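does this look right to u?? iron/sulfur cluster version
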Amino acid sequence: MSIREIQEEIRRLKKENDICILAHCYQAPEILEVADFTGDSYALAVNAAKVQHKTVLMCGVRFMAETCKILSPDKTVLLSNPDAGCPMAEMMDKVTIEAVKEMYPDYAVVAYINTTSELKTVCDVCVTSSSALKICRQLTSDKILFIPDCNLGDWIAKQIPEKEFKLLSGGCPTHARMGSEDVEKAKAAHPNALLLVHPECKPEVAAYADYIGSTTGIMDYAKKSDAKEFIIGTENSIVTHLQMACPDKRFYPLSKSCICANMKATTLIDVLHCCQGTGGEVIELDEDIMNGARRCIDKMIELG
Ligand code: 13P
Ligand code: SF4
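got this back:
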C-alpha cells in the first residue's frame, strides 16, 4: 500500500468507527494530514474536552493521551504507540513533590502539562508553554513552585519579576541538546535568519532568540513574519512543517540533534492499526487520579 492508500483507509476507518484523531505538531506530516485536530499541547487539551466521537486517538506522547482521558472520561482514549512516553514527565513523582511542598508550604504548585496524572493530583494548576505566562500572572499567589521544567520556569519567572519562583532541575532532554555553540554556528551560517525557539530550550539559547514560544507560536510567528529566513530551535519536525507551509521562505534547524524519539515513535502504520482496532493502548486511570488531575487541568482551561 502507498502512503496515500494507507491514509485513505485511515480516513474510511475513522469515519466508520467514530474515531477522532488528535495529533501534536511534532508528529510526521503524513500523520498530521489524517488528523482531525493538530496543534500544541494546549490546543490538543482544549480540543480533547470538546470531542464528540466515541473514540479519541492521540498521536503524541502518554501524558497527552492521559490528559485526553481525564477530560473525556466516558470515551475510549487510545495512545497511538504505547512506547511513546515523555522523559520530562517521568522526572518527578508525587512523593518527591509532596516532600518539596512541605519545604515551601505557602507556594502555589504550577505543573507543566508534561507531568504524570498522579503528580498532577498534588499540584494547584497545570500550564502549557503557550498558556504558562497568562496563568502564572493570574494566580493570586505571589509565590510559585514551578515544576518540572526549569527552563520554561526561568523564562516565565523573568517576565513576572514581581512574583517569587522556585524552580527544580527538570527539563526536556531533547531541547537540552541545544547550546550556545549551536546558536553561534547557526547564526554564522545564516546571518539574516531570525532565531525562533521553544521555552524548553536552555536560557543560554533563549537569550539570543528573536521569538520564544510554543510549537504553534513558532509556526504562527514564522508564517506571519515578513522575514525570509528562520533558524528553528525546537523539535526538527517543525522545520519540515514550516518549509512545506511556506515554500518561499527558508527554515534551518538550530541543531540536527533536536529530534524527540518519543514523538517519532508513532508511524502511519500505528495509526492504521489503531483505527483497525489492533494497535495502540487504551488509556485506563484510577478514578481518584482522574478526579485529582482533572481539577488541575480544568483550572488551566479556565485561566488559559
Ligand atoms: P508545546 O506543544 O506546548 O509547544 O510543547 C512542546 C512539547 O515538548 C510537547 O511535549
Ligand atoms: Fe517530552 Fe521533550 Fe519529547 Fe516534548 S520534546 S515529548 S517534552 S521529551
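The mean pLDDT is 96. idk if thats expected tbh
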